[in-house]
Amino acid sequence: MSYTVSRGLHARRHPRGRNGIPGLKTPVTGARSRIGWDGWRSVSTGVAIFCAFFLCAPTAAHAQASLDWVNVAGTLRSFALHLPIGYGSEKKYPLVIVLHGGDETAQDMARLSRFDFLADRYGFIAFYPNADEADWNVGVAAAPVNRPRGRRGGFFSLPMPFDVPGGQGAENRGSRTETQLGDVPFFEYMLDKLTASYSIDPHRIFVTGYSDGGIMAFRLGCSMSGRIAAVAPVAGALPKEMSLHCQLSRGVSLLMINGTSDPAAPYRGGHLKGTRLMTLPVKTAAARWAELDRCALKATQTALPPPNKKGMTTILNTYGDCRDGAQVSLYTIEGGGNTWPGGTAILPEKEVGKTSMDLDADEIIWKFFSTHPMRSSSSGTH
Fold it and tell me: Domains (ranges, CATH) in the chain?
């Protein structure tokens, strides 16, 4: 396979970049320069320059992310990378992969999660990839059922059979993938390049995702457990087929945030909206991951009452005593929908349900990640 990276001068998506929000910068006077790999074109004051080898030394001037493109085996994939304020190669930084929902973009996810601001506050690198076409290739077969296409037209589209590392590659996955890169190899490649080119701590690589991106977070936890320290799906579901084939080489911490009134990923399990894909009930998914992590059999439960009568009650279930210092935590929001707690919903409430403003998903996720780095793998039970 050949891999090249290029500046998105003829990008497919052109949302406007704002302070702290990834956006495509056009090659005009004053445009922020970007540095890249293998012919990644950078633009500064209207002059294009090239880096022949991997990444040139990044500076604080590149702290604001912009949308860039990578050509992987003939397939263009786009992404944004946000470096925290004061970034320098003298220390190692955590990396947080932030995955958007179905029919959404990296820009949408940056606005929803505000992880750029969190990255500046706590000092980590935020990586926002875009799915090819509209949805993530999570590796589970599920034919769409009357799913509308187009911008923000639906929640899920999952056409691929699940494969574990060493299994069949993308070339055997059906007609759609004849021109589409399987997403696990894409993430493997991007992690190779990012860790080689930026000052990233390999023991602190994390994944979070919203809705369809949450399912992809589960997939990366399953298929890349040797590289991912923890995953945090929000409003995501664990497909039954994926749970049966998931194999963890070490303990991978899991944080789940789900609403009991989610119209897309049913809390009690069942078909994902718009597909025939069967998912586990949310509590069963947490218990299954705890089993994979070899945690204590019973979770501890804590009620988190809302600060006022108009708020939403949250129940926290935690599995401890897991191998390699892992932990499994589930935040259940009573009456919550397919939303990001503390954020502004991308779609109307009548379509996605209620958003809890009593929780700050950003802070909860980062606190969880920061306390669950990768530890040395153990072959024992705990």
Answer: 65-370 (3.40.50.1820)
